[in-house]
């Protein structure tokens, strides 16, 4: 059995793996968002971009459960319910959200890299600059993908079923709920191939995204090295600190995760154009856990490593009271006595030494 055959046969196992990865990461994501909103010290451009990217990340996860994971794993149970849904919820909505979240994620990731570049290159003007452009960036991330994906609602969808008797997949009208093993939401034979257009467009977005981000990363790494050398020889105080270095590494690693997703889209497009449907099926099998790892998992868990202060606040916000008390006790500072108190202590000690001892 080759790798492609194994991938297709291990579809359900890989789906369960993706669920085990995504659900804890999504819960952590939500906890981090609440912590950022609760504490004013995290109200800056980086954490604002973190929340902006978290929205399409979590929206993608919901869409993936709705249109792929649950129908595949629990098709026999959910088939009667999905059969009652209007067509726009079967054809338009799932693929609109797929394209929307993918493109919004790419935009947010590129802006996070740009944010780290300006934090290193112009640290004194960084906060003022991003305070002005952050609302425009939020509008761009949330609104631009709508303009490119709204035609998906014109798509006519269908429920493509897999029967218990291992017969070829058929439309929902030819199957009953007792015969359905699993199903997935697919495109009906439309005059306009909306799904092919979506795959082609997302592939182009993937290429542009990787080129732009690689250029930003090259500038950021070069600027970081220049700043460190400048600090080393001139002993300047505004060199990038350890937190900025970790946040930059965070941005780089999360970019690598999204670049892996982009490569997956490119692979699906190439396999589709070359009519290699076995390759398409294998890539779609790996799609859930790859996208979960590249988006939700890395973005949420890596932030705990990147910022010590944020990790401490998160633990204090969500741990039980006893552990919170122990953490605060460890972080408390012993008060230092003032000069008057120290003089009084010295005087008392001298008096005690001068007092005669009683035999």
From TrEMBL:
<keyword id="KW-0472">Membrane</keyword>
<dbReference type="GO" id="GO:0016020">
    <property type="term" value="C:membrane"/>
</dbReference>
<protein>
    <recommendedName>
        <fullName>Serpentine receptor class gamma</fullName>
    </recommendedName>
</protein>
<feature type="transmembrane region" description="Helical">
    <location>
        <begin position="194"/>
        <end position="226"/>
    </location>
</feature>
<dbReference type="InterPro" id="IPR000609">
    <property type="entry name" value="7TM_GPCR_serpentine_rcpt_Srg"/>
</dbReference>
<feature type="transmembrane region" description="Helical">
    <location>
        <begin position="58"/>
        <end position="82"/>
    </location>
</feature>
<keyword id="KW-0812">Transmembrane</keyword>
<feature type="transmembrane region" description="Helical">
    <location>
        <begin position="102"/>
        <end position="122"/>
    </location>
</feature>
<dbReference type="GO" id="GO:0007606">
    <property type="term" value="P:sensory perception of chemical stimulus"/>
</dbReference>
<feature type="transmembrane region" description="Helical">
    <location>
        <begin position="129"/>
        <end position="147"/>
    </location>
</feature>
<comment type="similarity">
    <text>Belongs to the nematode receptor-like protein srg family.</text>
</comment>
<feature type="transmembrane region" description="Helical">
    <location>
        <begin position="14"/>
        <end position="37"/>
    </location>
</feature>
<feature type="transmembrane region" description="Helical">
    <location>
        <begin position="286"/>
        <end position="306"/>
    </location>
</feature>
<feature type="transmembrane region" description="Helical">
    <location>
        <begin position="247"/>
        <end position="271"/>
    </location>
</feature>
<dbReference type="InterPro" id="IPR051119">
    <property type="entry name" value="Nematode_SR-like"/>
</dbReference>
<dbReference type="Pfam" id="PF02118">
    <property type="entry name" value="Srg"/>
</dbReference>
<feature type="region of interest" description="Disordered">
    <location>
        <begin position="340"/>
        <end position="359"/>
    </location>
</feature>
<keyword id="KW-1133">Transmembrane helix</keyword>
């Amino acid at each position: 059995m080759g790798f492609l055959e194994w991938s297709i046969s291990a579809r359900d196992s890989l789906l369960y793996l993706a669920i085990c990865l995504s659900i804890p990461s999504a819960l952590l994501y939500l906890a981090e968002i609440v912590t950022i909103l609760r504490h004013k010290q995290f109200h800056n451009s980086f954490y604002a971009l973190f929340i902006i990217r978290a929205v399409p990340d979590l929206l993608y996860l919901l869409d993936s459960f709705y249109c792929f994971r649950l129908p595949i794993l629990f098709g026999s149970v959910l088939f009667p319910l999905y059969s009652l849904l209007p067509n726009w919820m079967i054809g338009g909505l799932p693929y609109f959200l797929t394209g929307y979240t993918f493109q919004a994620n790419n935009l947010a990731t590129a802006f996070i890299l740009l944010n780290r570049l300006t934090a290193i290159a112009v640290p004194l003007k960084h906060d003022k600059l991003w305070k002005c452009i952050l609302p425009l960036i939020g509008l761009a991330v949330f609104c631009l993908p709508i303009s490119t994906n709204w035609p998906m609602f014109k798509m006519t969808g269908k429920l493509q079923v897999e029967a218990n008797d291992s017969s070829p997949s058929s439309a929902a009208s030819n199957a009953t709920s007792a015969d359905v093993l699993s199903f997935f939401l697919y495109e009906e034979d439309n005059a306009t191939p909306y799904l092919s257009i979506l795959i082609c467009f997302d592939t182009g977005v993937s290429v542009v995204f990787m080129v732009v981000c690689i250029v930003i990363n090259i500038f950021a790494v070069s600027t970081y090295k220049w700043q460190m050398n400048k600090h080393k020889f001139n002993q300047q105080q505004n060199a990038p600190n350890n937190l900025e270095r970790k946040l930059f590494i965070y941005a780089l690693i999360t970019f690598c995760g999204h670049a892996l997703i982009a490569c997956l889209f490119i692979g699906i497009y190439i396999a589709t154009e070359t009519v290699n449907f076995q390759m398409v099926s294998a890539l779609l099998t790996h799609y859930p856990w790859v996208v979960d790892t590249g988006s939700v998992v890395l973005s949420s868990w890596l932030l705990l490593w990147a910022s010590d202060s944020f990790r401490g606040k998160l633990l204090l916000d969500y741990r039980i009271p006893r552990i919170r008390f122990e953490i605060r006790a460890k972080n408390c500072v012993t008060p230092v006595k003032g000069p008057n108190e120290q003089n009084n202590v010295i005087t008392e000690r001298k008096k005690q030494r001068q007092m005669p001892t009683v035999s």
